[in-house]
């Protein structure tokens, strides 16, 4: 054969292209057969016909007679034949595609035999690797096919239905049926099938002797060699890491072992050779299962034994396989455990040095991919062997299959991957210069030294040289996209051209050239193919199919504090899952996508939840410690000191009280407290959460910190409400001051989270605390503001109205008058100015406005009832209004009035509510003056410079919201306006008559025993002094609503009516009627003092001040007498 015809012939065979296409097709076929096997093995997903009881006998008939099926005996499927075709067509045609794939593989193998291709992994790497991959893929497919449970039933049912519809069998069925039958025992058939291909296959397998033993070393050997170490020889730190077999260095050990075991299993005659036998034994001793595809494995020793059992004279081989099995069970677990241990420290060292000096990523790139590849192999080994433990073996072996430090290895793998991605441009710059500055020049020299170089080979070599020479650094700086796929394909083609028999340029004679171009191929991958080489060396998408182990490893890591910081590796691995999909099986993409999105969401959520739980525990402890510092706890210490002074010498020493802060005293740092452990766990977990700002899975982006932010926000909201400790049944609630201390302690702990994670805790505070000022939070739950509003308006103020509690004007609090314990709580502990300031701190102006609006709603309800009473007494009140200067008529008409006590009681209730609201507003103002002094001073300026009347009603609203008092309360006016009568004249008259009703009813208060004024409290025991703010605020608001601008005139009228009514008390002779006359006189003084519309001069003109002065003197004297009696 001439040189020209030879080269034309081999180039026309397109070995390189066919190997690439068929290998990709083989993975696609594996994917489809795998999915069929899984579907048929699961009762829920298998085709319904296969489980149909009515078809059971037909299916048994098909399986028994397969592939020679007589449709006459299958009448049961006649009515559903179209449904069967529709349902099983995807399954059937997958098997047809498999037949087509088999034909193409056999054809290619025959061509390679005919061309007498020489394969050597260390010489023509791409050609040999693709050949061996194709062979193992083909074997895996046939083995997997034999493990599909219902293959005969599926094919037989479809063909029978097809024959019924088309009156003839499918044209592919005879060959397909024969394929199924032939490969019931796959290894036997494959060994027969590969007899013609043995020579080429054995060349390829024998070349592994130069690679496999060097890859299958123990951890001790790695340590002695200082494998993967950058610092073992500092002098070589900047020198590129290179070998003569670059591509072999990061070749998967799992692939090598599959090539060896499957290859020698079907060419078992070659096991008599020493090197072949050593590799065979070593591979079988590495583990007890071998991967077929994804999580499909075979117990390889028993599988081979059953195959060898059928071959005469193979007793020795069977014994050898059994010995290998026992060796694998006893020692493989330990060997791989030690490897993982070594790789953890080696990858950690690599990560630390490269993070500090990313420039080393250029020369030391090979080490990174070797480290990733080794680690990936060990992770895969653990996954497969953990999920498929050795049969009937317990103890040490199973211990070696549980690795609590696995997350650390996974994390360091992800760390190196992140470094490669981050500094990809550093690597590109290095290798672009390497290719153009050294590789192109050296290749050119080698080409010139070639004695023979045919035209095709010369064209390819020149193309490779020119491609490398044309590169420059500016392309990297301009972010130009590189694509060297053509370069690598040309080298693959060149390998094919130069590895056949009788080729003028034989690659075997040009080993140096082959090894050099192999290095160049690696250099090109560093420029344009980093993502793919990372998938090739460190893709962990296999976890997608070991989801139980994946989740259990995650939870084990979560519970193991020493590994907490590495837990972020699990969500990051979810981004690998899309790498395991294949375009030949698009239907599984959706399922894998949903699984990966679901798992990453669960993992990030549980990480954040665990961090939140730790933070909550620390917060609770800090709240307890803060609580111990509260003044109320000093009573115990004071009592103990008092007892110590008068203790009897014979008595035993009392138990010493542990003072707050004692937990800070330590004898040694080595003894960790629970809090120490919690803080350490939090630090580790937060490192993981903070490790990366986002995790990209498919087209979604997940932010780990946002998960923590949401959990903290939800937890803080619940904690805030929980710390209120409101009990509806017992009416108990936390004191606002104590709640404030707890909230501050909680916030102090949350603030420290910012030291660990880059999240905005202020945003958490703003969101949560702002929600707590509203009636409900975003989840529709009650808030601090709503709970305290409910408690103060419905519990405290109702108890005040019921008696036993008095509003003290000098203490600015509600004071319990009964003995301690008579009511569930002491009113002063919840209503004094300090407590209300604390409440204002907690719920702010918004919350205080909610409290005010609720109180005003209660007042508006009382006013409505008062208006109804006025309407009932309208005629009498009109008479009283017009005859206020005629004592006799007034006396007679007053007797006709109904519900006088009811009116006074309701006015007192209104007064109590307004008094509480007044001190609440003062508390709010105190808080705001401290927190926003400049803003408050501006509001005060607005109020002082306000034109009379505030026509826009805006300034009054603003002042009221800030706690400033207004002449007419806008919140009260707004609440009352909602119940205003339609006719303004009618409304005005009713308000005037209500004023008359109250004024003329005041003398009735003197009859009550509780109307006694207590100077020590500056208040009446029955709270009638609260009527003063009620009268001023209610009538001020009501007359403002009427809009007739006569507030001052009406208040003067009220003063005239009230004073004349009270003066008549001086003429009363009934002792009951004047029991507390002096105390009631004082009420008139209080009304004038608090009124913005009345003056002391006006009072003097209506009511002699000497009476008020004497009244004060009298009540002070009476209280002193009561105290000393």
Automatic annotation (TrEMBL):
Protein name: Membrane-associated protein Hem
Family: Belongs to the HEM-1/HEM-2 family.
GO annotation (BP), single: neuron projection morphogenesis
Origin species: Parnassius mnemosyne
Entry GO CC: SCAR complex
A Pfam family this chain is assigned to: Nckap1
């Amino acid at each position: 054969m001439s040189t020209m015809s030879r080269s034309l012939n081999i180039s026309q065979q397109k070995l390189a292209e066919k190997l690439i296409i068929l290998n990709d097709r083989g993975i696609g076929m594996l994917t489809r057969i795998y999915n069929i096997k899984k579907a048929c093995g699961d009762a829920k997903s298998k085709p319904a016909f296969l489980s149909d009881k009515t078809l059971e006998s037909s299916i048994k008939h098909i399986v028994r007679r397969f592939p020679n099926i007589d449709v006459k005996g299958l009448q049961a499927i006649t009515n559903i034949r179209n449904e069967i075709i529709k349902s099983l067509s995807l399954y059937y045609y997958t098997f047809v595609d498999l037949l087509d794939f088999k034909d193409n593989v056999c054809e290619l193998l025959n061509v390679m035999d005919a061309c007498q291709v020489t394969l050597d992994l260390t010489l023509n790497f791409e050609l040999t690797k693709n050949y061996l991959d194709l062979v193992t893929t083909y074997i895996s497919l046939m083995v997997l096919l034999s493990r599909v449970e219902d293959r005969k039933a599926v094919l037989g049912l479809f063909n029978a239905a097809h024959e019924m519809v088309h009156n003839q069998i499918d044209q592919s069925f005879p060959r397909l049926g024969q394929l199924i039958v032939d490969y019931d025992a796959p290894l036997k058939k494959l060994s027969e099938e590969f007899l013609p291909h043995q020579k080429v296959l054995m060349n390829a397998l024998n070349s592994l002797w130069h690679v496999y033993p060097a890859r299958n070393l123990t951890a001790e050997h790695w340590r002695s060699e200082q494998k993967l170490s950058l610092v073992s020889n500092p002098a070589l730190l900047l020198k590129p890491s290179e070998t003569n077999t670059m591509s072999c260095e990061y070749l998967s050990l799992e692939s090598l072992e599959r090539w060896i075991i499957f290859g020698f299993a079907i060419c078992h005659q070659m096991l008599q050779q020493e090197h072949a036998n050593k590799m065979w034994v070593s591979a079988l001793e590495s583990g007890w299962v071998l991967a077929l595809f994804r999580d499909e494995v075979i117990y390889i020793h028993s599988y081979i034994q059953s195959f060898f059992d059928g071959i005469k004279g193979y007793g020795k081989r069977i014994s050898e396989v059994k010995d290998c099995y026992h060796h694998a069970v006893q020692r493989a677990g330990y060997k791989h455990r030690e490897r993982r241990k070594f790789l953890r420290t080696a990858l950690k060292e690599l990560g630390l040095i490269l993070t500090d000096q990313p420039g080393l990523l250029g020369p030391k790139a090979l080490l990174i991919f070797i480290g990733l590849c080794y680690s990936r192999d060990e992770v895969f080994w653990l996954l497969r062997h953990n999920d498929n433990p050795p049969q009937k073996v317990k103890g040490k072996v199973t211990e070696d299959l549980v690795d609590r430090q696995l997350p650390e290895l996974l994390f360091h793998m992800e760390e190196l991957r992140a470094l490669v991605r981050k500094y990809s441009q550093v690597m590109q710059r290095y290798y672009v210069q390497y290719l153009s500055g050294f590789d192109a020049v050296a290749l050119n020299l080698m080409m010139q030294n070639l004695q023979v170089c045919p035209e095709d080979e010369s064209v390819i070599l020149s193309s490779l040289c020119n491609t490398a020479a044309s590169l420059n650094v500016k392309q990297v700086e301009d972010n130009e996209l590189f694509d060297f796929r053509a370069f690598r394909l040309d080298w693959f083609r060149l390998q094919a051209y130069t590895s056949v028999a009788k080729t003028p340029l034989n690659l075997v004679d040009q080993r140096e050239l082959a090894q050099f171009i192999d290095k160049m191929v690696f250099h090109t991958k560093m420029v344009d193919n980093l993502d793919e080489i990372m998938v090739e060396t460190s893709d962990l998408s296999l976890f997608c199919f070991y989801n139980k182990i994946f989740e259990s490893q995650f939870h084990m890591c979560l519970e193991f504090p020493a590994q907490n910081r590495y837990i972020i590796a699990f969500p990051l691995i979810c981004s690998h899952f899309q790498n395991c999909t294949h375009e030949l099986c698009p239907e599984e993409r959706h399922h894998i996508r949903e699984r990966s999105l679901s798992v990453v969401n669960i993992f990030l959520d549980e990480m954040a939840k665990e961090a939140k739980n730790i933070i909550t525990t620390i917060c609770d402890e800090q709240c307890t410690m803060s609580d111990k510092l509260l003044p109320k706890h000093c009573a115990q210490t004071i009592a103990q000191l008092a007892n110590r002074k008068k203790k009897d010498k014979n008595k035993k020493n009392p138990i010493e009280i542990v003072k707050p802060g004692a937990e800070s005293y330590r004898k040694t740092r080595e003894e960790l407290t629970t809090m120490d452990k919690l803080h350490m766990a939090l630090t580790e977990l937060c490192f993981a959460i903070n490790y990366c700002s986002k995790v990209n899975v498919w087209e979604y982006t997940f932010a780990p910190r946002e998960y923590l932010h949401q959990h903290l926000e939800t937890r803080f909201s619940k904690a805030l409400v929980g710390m209120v400790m409101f009990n509806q049944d017992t009416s108990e609630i936390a004191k606002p001051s104590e709640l404030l201390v707890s909230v501050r302690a909680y916030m102090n702990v949350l603030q420290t989270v910012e030291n660990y994670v880059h999240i905005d805790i202020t945003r958490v505070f703003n969101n949560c605390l702002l929600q707590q000022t509203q009636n409900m939070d975003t989840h529709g739950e009650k808030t601090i503001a709503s709970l305290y509003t409910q408690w103060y308006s419905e519990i405290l103020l109702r108890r005040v109205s019921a008696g036993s509690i008095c509003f003290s004007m000098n203490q600015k609090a509600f004071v319990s008058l009964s003995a301690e314990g008579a009511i569930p709580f002491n009113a002063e502990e919840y209503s004094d100015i300090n407590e209300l300031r604390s409440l204002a701190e907690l719920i702010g102006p918004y919350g205080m406005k909610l409290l005010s609006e609720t109180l005003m709603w209660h007042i508006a309800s009382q006013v409505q009832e008062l208006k109804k009473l006025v309407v009932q007494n309208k005629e009498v009140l009109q008479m009283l209004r017009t005859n206020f200067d005629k004592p006799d008529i007034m006396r007679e008409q007053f007797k006709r009035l109904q519900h006088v006590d009811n009116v006074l009681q309701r006015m007192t209730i209104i007064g109590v509510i307004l008094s509480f609201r007044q001190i609440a507003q003062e508390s709010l103002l105190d808080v705001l003056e401290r927190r926003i002094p400049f803003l408050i001073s501006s509001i005060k300026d607005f109020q002082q410079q306000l034109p009379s009347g505030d026509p826009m009603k805006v300034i009054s609203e603003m002042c009221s919201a800030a706690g400033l008092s207004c002449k007419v309360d806008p919140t009260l006016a707004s609440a009352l306006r909602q119940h205003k009568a339609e006719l303004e004249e009618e409304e005005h008259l009713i308000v005037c008559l209500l004023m008359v009703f109250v004024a003329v009813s005041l003398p009735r208060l003197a009859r009550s025993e509780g109307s006694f004024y207590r100077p020590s409290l500056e208040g009446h025991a029955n709270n009638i002094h609260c009527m003063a703010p009620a009268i001023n605020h209610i009538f001020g608001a009501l007359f403002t609503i009427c809009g007739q601008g006569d507030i001052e005139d009406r208040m003067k009228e009220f003063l005239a009516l009230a004073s004349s009514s009270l003066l008549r008390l001086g003429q009363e002779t009934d002792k009951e009627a004047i029991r507390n006359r002096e105390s009631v006189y004082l009420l008139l003084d209080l009304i004038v003092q608090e009124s913005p519309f009345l003056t002391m001069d006006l009072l003097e003109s209506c009511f002699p001040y000497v009476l008020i002065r004497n009244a004060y003197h009298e009540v002070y004297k009476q209280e002193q007498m009561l105290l000393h009696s």
